[in-house]
Amino acid sequence: MNLDTKWLEDFLMLADMQHFSRAAEARHITQPAFGRHIRALEKAVGHTLIDRTTTPISLTAAGRQFRTIAQNLVSQMEAGVKMLNGIEQPLQNPIRIATPHSLSSPTLLDLTEFINQEHNLHFSIDILRVDFAVEALTEASCDFLLGFEILSLLQPPFQNLCIGHGDFLLVSAADERGGALYNPLEMKCPILKYSAESYSARLIEQYQPQFESLNTYPVFESSMCQLHKDMALRGKGLAWLPDAQIRRELDTGKLIAVSPQQFRLPYQIRLYRNSAPLRQDAQQLWNYLQHSVKTGWQINRSWQPN
């Protein structure tokens, strides 16, 4: 296969800009020449990469997979040339991970620390809403997505590893005696709600029939678990929070799980990737986690009261 690196750079520019003339202008070549480069690239790889019937133009399924390959090839080549020229690179081509706020701390921090016990890898982290994170993985803007169960990613062309599990717990700040400040089994209580488009709201909605008698009234709404955690710690109301995010507060008694055997919504933590070949360090990470999971390692396990 004969590939001109300029074709790869042209393709990546077109994937970003979704417009032939603007991409050609950004690459400082004429549109006819730019179009020839893209057609030559498609002929070389044996697949149509660009869907020219949409407005703006978009990538085909093969194009989305090839975008990851092209990014890795161009990045590795640029890093190699810079190394040959002796240009210092404090952070060379980091592994890109997208994740929602609810798993950014401490889960993702714990994950990167666990990986770097054995491998000296560099990471670039994007904290995104789940739908934006899925888009980033689909469009090859990241190498991995750390998330909960995402149905659209549990099928080809994606792969995933289940690296942990836990529960969303109904929690309250502690009262002066160390018990729950709010208990819906005993009184009508304020509750912090999730925005309708958030993953947490959809998870809670699945189990809503079990909690129809929950004696609460909404006082605050946000899509971010961290805000709910902060508001709960301030005594503003009950909150559904993932145990991975509040384990320390539960163990120290700053947050109290209300009837945890009854109010417990299970979740899984998964690391997702595209099926397209990964560059060497990203594949090294994937292989290491695959082996660790097979030997029983998990980044999180369901919290249980002492």
UniProtKB/TrEMBL annotation:
<dbReference type="Pfam" id="PF00126">
    <property type="entry name" value="HTH_1"/>
</dbReference>
<dbReference type="InterPro" id="IPR005119">
    <property type="entry name" value="LysR_subst-bd"/>
</dbReference>
<dbReference type="GO" id="GO:0000976">
    <property type="term" value="F:transcription cis-regulatory region binding"/>
</dbReference>
<keyword id="KW-0238">DNA-binding</keyword>
<keyword id="KW-0805">Transcription regulation</keyword>
<dbReference type="GO" id="GO:0003700">
    <property type="term" value="F:DNA-binding transcription factor activity"/>
</dbReference>
<feature type="domain" description="HTH lysR-type">
    <location>
        <begin position="3"/>
        <end position="60"/>
    </location>
</feature>
<protein>
    <submittedName>
        <fullName>Transcriptional regulator, LysR family</fullName>
    </submittedName>
</protein>
<comment type="similarity">
    <text>Belongs to the LysR transcriptional regulatory family.</text>
</comment>
<dbReference type="Pfam" id="PF03466">
    <property type="entry name" value="LysR_substrate"/>
</dbReference>
<dbReference type="InterPro" id="IPR036388">
    <property type="entry name" value="WH-like_DNA-bd_sf"/>
</dbReference>
<dbReference type="InterPro" id="IPR036390">
    <property type="entry name" value="WH_DNA-bd_sf"/>
</dbReference>
<dbReference type="InterPro" id="IPR000847">
    <property type="entry name" value="LysR_HTH_N"/>
</dbReference>
<keyword id="KW-0804">Transcription</keyword>
